[in-house]
Recover the amino acids of this structure.
């Protein structure tokens, strides 16, 4: 038995906890009511209000939907053009410049993927476009997919979102704050948009931007299992007898929802339904006094679905991997579980880093299904201009990059051939003493990677660096070259070995050797070059040897991303000997994963593991580092080649 002292102590602590919980509850009710008032004001803003609010921003394309059009749509879908008819009537949208839904000949095979995203998640939208959210017709399934991203209002990234709209034509902005209490509003608004602007889409798949999805498994399910004619309803992984939370992050007050138990609802990470069911959901919410509950999945797929009397079904023989707290080994899960439809990415648990995980998992999914994907190349815009990160502008046709270089008259240049998402430049800036003194030039011709690189390097912390991003293919001549785009880190010059010819386009190439000799004109210039050109390193570097420009660089870092290929090892040895013959010393080899680890820990370069034996290197993503020997004698700009080689 407890002593009287312990009993009194427990009672006192219990009272304190009760009082604290009571006042927290009252405060939360007040805060939520204030939030409702705020969103009510925001939702009653018309499209003209938005146009006036952002009229000072210089946009190249008109992206705001005409008010008259929305009025007609309200009357058609909601039954009234009155903006105060219901909460739905007050949702407005800022659409891309062109119609988003491009219907195929037969709309029975048309599916849209509705992705809820945050305005700031540019990088994740990019990788979704390049992986599981690719648009176009999937030939083996005879299904056409259109992915559409929905973001809320965030003034800090407003202009960037508008530019993204104009470029990719797949982002819809809604007049709803980017705050957790309004997630359900965003989700409901996305359904309304679907009925407004994409009414002929037969199937709708709702997803979050933090999932990793096996698109082929989903299409296989639709083709062989789903029968909306016989069982039209909402499909997902349903939960039963879930208690309504009253005092935590997912708390819902009795003023919002009185019952203690939610109706059956599915995880909001993804679910599938028809456009007919979408209209029924809209009809159920289309009432003046309808209360939107802030817990999106419980509200849309539970309360509103139950109110609309829509049946629900579990995904048959499809699994998911989901957690709130710990990282999931999605790569192992996708490799070993043939029925795994989706897995939560690191973003879901708050680990916001570079989304390499999406590319890695997508490669596993492609290999598992032994398929390549078809998509519309026209989705990806052609990039023609060099971007100046320091001045946040594109250089005009008459404005040479060389006018802006050597701005501090300190002759240090870092050239990164293959920017991808800017990671390697971040590493260079972090690990290199006095990196602020360098003029940094990077090449990235892949449109998706170019945007990732531009976004990363345009961060405020890099604004003082003189960085240029050039959208050209680095090669041995000026002209056009076949280039495989939209493959993340594996984008590159087409090697005629892969079957995915749908992603091959003709891009502008430059003679790097000639370009480098024109760039490096001042004496005592120190040039550091990082080269990523899988399968074409030898042919590219031989051209520099012939032109006597290899020695214009004081250091070369050569990326070997495919050492597991048996044909790569002889090439590696050949180049190793070539660098040695022309005055370079190999100072060792490093591994990209180890560099990433040291970078994330904010440790110096001295802590990076250095290898000195080729046979001991890891099989993927390794670097060979070559430094020009000090005993060359003559300036690299006047040195003549000791050996005369044939021109390639």
């Amino acid at each position: 038995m407890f002593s009287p002292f312990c009993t009194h102590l427990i009672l006192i602590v219990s009272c304190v906890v009760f009082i604290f919980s009571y006042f927290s509850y009252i405060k939360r009710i007040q805060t939520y009511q204030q939030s409702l008032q705020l969103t009510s004001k925001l939702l009653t803003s018309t499209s003209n209000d938005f146009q006036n609010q952002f009229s000072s921003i210089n946009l190249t394309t008109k992206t705001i939907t005409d008010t008259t059009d929305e009025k007609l749509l309200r009357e058609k879908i909601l039954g009234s053009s009155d903006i105060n008819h219901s909460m739905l009537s007050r949702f407005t949208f800022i659409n891309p410049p062109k119609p988003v839904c491009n219907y195929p000949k037969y709309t029975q095979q048309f599916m849209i993927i509705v992705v809820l995203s945050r305005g700031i998640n540019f990088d994740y939208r990019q990788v979704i476009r390049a992986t599981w959210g690719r648009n176009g017709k999937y030939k083996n399934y005879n299904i056409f997919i259109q992915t559409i991203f929905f973001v809320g209002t965030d003034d800090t990234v407003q202009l960037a979102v508008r530019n993204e709209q104009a470029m990719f034509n797949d982002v819809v902005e809604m007049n709803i704050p980017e705050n957790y209490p309004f997630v359900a509003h965003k989700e409901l608004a996305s359904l309304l948009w679907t009925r407004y602007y994409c009414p002929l889409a037969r199937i709708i798949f709702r997803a979050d931007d933090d999932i990793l999805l096996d698109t082929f498994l989903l299409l296989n399910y639709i083709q062989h299992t789903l029968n909306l004619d016989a069982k039209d309803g909402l499909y997902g992984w349903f939960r039963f007898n879930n208690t309504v939370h009253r005092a935590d992050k997912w708390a819902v007050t009795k003023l919002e929802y009185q019952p203690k138990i939610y109706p059956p609802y599915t995880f909001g990470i993804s679910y599938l339904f028809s456009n007919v069911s979408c209209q029924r959901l809209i009809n159920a919410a289309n009432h003046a006094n309808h209360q939107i509950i802030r817990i999106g999945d419980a509200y849309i797929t539970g309360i509103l679905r139950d109110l609309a009397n829509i049946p629900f079904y579990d995904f048959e023989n499809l699994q998911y991997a989901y957690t709130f707290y710990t990282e999931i080994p999605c790569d192992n899960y996708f490799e070993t579980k043939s029925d795994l439809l989706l897995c939560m990415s690191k973003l879901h648990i708050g680990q916001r880093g570079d989304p390499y995980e999406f590319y890695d998992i997508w490669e596993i999914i492609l290999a598992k299904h032994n398929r390549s994907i078809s998509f519309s190349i026209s989705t990806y815009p052609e990039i023609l201009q060099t971007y100046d990160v320091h001045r946040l502008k594109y250089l005009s046709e008459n404005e040479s990059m060389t006018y802006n270089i050597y701005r501090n008259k300190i002759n240090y240049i870092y050239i990164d051939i293959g920017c991808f998402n800017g990671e390697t430049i971040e590493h260079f800036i972090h690990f290199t003493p006095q990196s602020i003194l360098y003029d940094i030039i990077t090449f990235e011709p892949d449109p998706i990677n170019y945007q990732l690189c531009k976004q990363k390097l345009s961060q405020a912390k890099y604004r003082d660096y003189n960085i240029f991003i050039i959208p050209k293919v680095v090669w041995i001549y000026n002209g056009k070259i076949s280039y495989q785009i939209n493959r993340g880190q594996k984008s590159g010059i087409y090697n005629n070995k892969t079957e995915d010819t749908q992603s091959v386009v003709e891009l502008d190439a430059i003679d790097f050797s000639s370009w480098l000799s024109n760039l490096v004109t001042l004496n005592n210039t120190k040039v550091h070059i990082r080269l990523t050109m899988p399968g074409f390193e030898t042919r590219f570097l031989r051209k520099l040897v012939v032109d006597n420009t290899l020695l214009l660089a004081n250091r070369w870092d050569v990326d070997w991303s495919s050492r597991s290929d048996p044909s790569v090892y002889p090439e590696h040895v050949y180049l190793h000997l070539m660098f040695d013959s022309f005055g370079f010393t190999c100072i060792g080899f490093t591994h990209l994963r180890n560099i990433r680890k040291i970078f994330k820990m904010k440790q110096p370069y001295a802590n990076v593991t250095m290898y000195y034996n080729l046979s001991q290197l890891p099989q993927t993503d390794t670097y060979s580092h070559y430094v020009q020997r000090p005993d060359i004698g003559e300036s690299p700009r006047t040195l003549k080649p000791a050996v005369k080689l044939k021109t390639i």
